[in-house]
Design brief:
The structure is a homodimer of 268-residue chains.
Chain A lengths: L10 H19 L9 E5 L5 H9 L4 E6 L2 H13 L5 E5 L12 E7 L8 H10 L1 E11 L6 E3 L3 H16 L10 H7 L3 E13 L3 H17 L2 H6 L5 H13 L6 E12 L2
Parallel strand pairs in A: 1-2, 1-4, 2-3, 4-5
Antiparallel strand pairs in A: 5-8, 6-8, 7-8
Helix pairs in contact in A: 1-2, 1-7, 5-9
Chain lengths: 268, 268
Amino acid sequence: MSNDYVHGYDPREAVRLQDQATTLVQLLHSDTVYPPARNVLEAGCGVGAQTVTLARNSPGALITSIDVSETSIAQARRAVQAAGFTNVTLQQADIFDLPFEPESFDHVFLCFVLEHLARPAEALKSLKRVLKRGGSMTVIEGDHGSTYFHPDSEYAQRAIRCLVELQASAGGNALIGRALYPLLRDTGFDDVRVSPRMVYVDSSKPDLVEGFTKKTFTAMVEGVRKPAIENGLTSEPDFDRGIKDLYRTTEIDGVFCYTFFKAVGKRV
Amino acid sequence: MSNDYVHGYDPREAVRLQDQATTLVQLLHSDTVYPPARNVLEAGCGVGAQTVTLARNSPGALITSIDVSETSIAQARRAVQAAGFTNVTLQQADIFDLPFEPESFDHVFLCFVLEHLARPAEALKSLKRVLKRGGSMTVIEGDHGSTYFHPDSEYAQRAIRCLVELQASAGGNALIGRALYPLLRDTGFDDVRVSPRMVYVDSSKPDLVEGFTKKTFTAMVEGVRKPAIENGLTSEPDFDRGIKDLYRTTEIDGVFCYTFFKAVGKRV
């Protein structure tokens, strides 16, 4: 599965994920706080970008973070150690074949994971099995179809679509954010609440212009330049024009919009 | 100009605008409160859907509401009288030829107006002239390009695009919400702050399913069926399939997203 991860595993990508988490921490994570002594499973922790935030916001919780990639787990371990947290256990494990007893965890947390899986509903069912009754499932996902900007650009929209199509051909779904409500509901979670987390960026917010529009979103689209061209989804000039137009939205009269979705459900 | 107003002036449309305002009142208007004895100009009040909310939220303010259409002003007058407000003066007037002295108003308020104008920047400049120095300009607009939903549907997206194209050929811009920041900035307003007001609807929110997705948004798209077909923008079966797919998003596993933008700037 690790080869299908659309963003790849190179060091620059790891930096981008860290940049992303740092910029969006408040927006996405500030309302996720687990009580002391509770067992929390973070599934698909990747390089630990969100793990550090989880550990910081819930210093008394006992966090187990897993990822299918041994390389990512090693990076996540270094990130957690560098941040000085001792309440995180890191472990290589597959969401579809979890090495835990049923009802082992009080809470389960997933961030930017389901979008990469061909069978997100089965992943949720597998995770539900290790979640205690009455425990919570929290899922955060983006939705690339929520992207729009000023000045508008067909080239930029097409460059984004390359990423959506590559993710789809790897079995994922870059438009999964809008579908979290039915996904949690259909996998048997109760009292499902979804809240959108819209990132609105104009030049009055220079930190978001740099940290989100440029370093997170446009860098992510730029990251698929090679596979997008190699797979015939676009031409070099068209893709480069799209990237140029995305950067154009970061100028003084530009605007950029993107929405993440956060869902919380309960296991009954 | 009144013939170009894309939604038309029929009674059903007036009801839809009222439905819309009632459902979205909190989201769009709760943070607009003008102090007692201040002179407020509401430009392009239409049938008075927002006028009543303005008068309710700022009972001590002296509100002057204008519209280019004498018919709309008459309807707005009835709406204001029916609601029992006495702090509103209604008057037929053209935004581009305002019958007021320079710096007559402490505040100016505009809601769902600029999207219908061919020269929104000139409208803002004209309104700025009658606004006192230090006074505020508040603008609320939608953005039909912010619409996405689950299940996704190319037909539904194309039906929405018919409305966008009809509005464009009437000289308007249905994607203006995202551009409010540069628009206010470029017309010389200071300290411009834009906040998105996203409407997220799933079946856990039955009031929004009815009041927004069905009665406001889908009804608005349905309203352009005839001109869209007559102008060759779509075929009957395609458009009807699009509307059916929009209603599909109101079922138990459906999700619907739309974003309004609210901008506030200061005249220096």
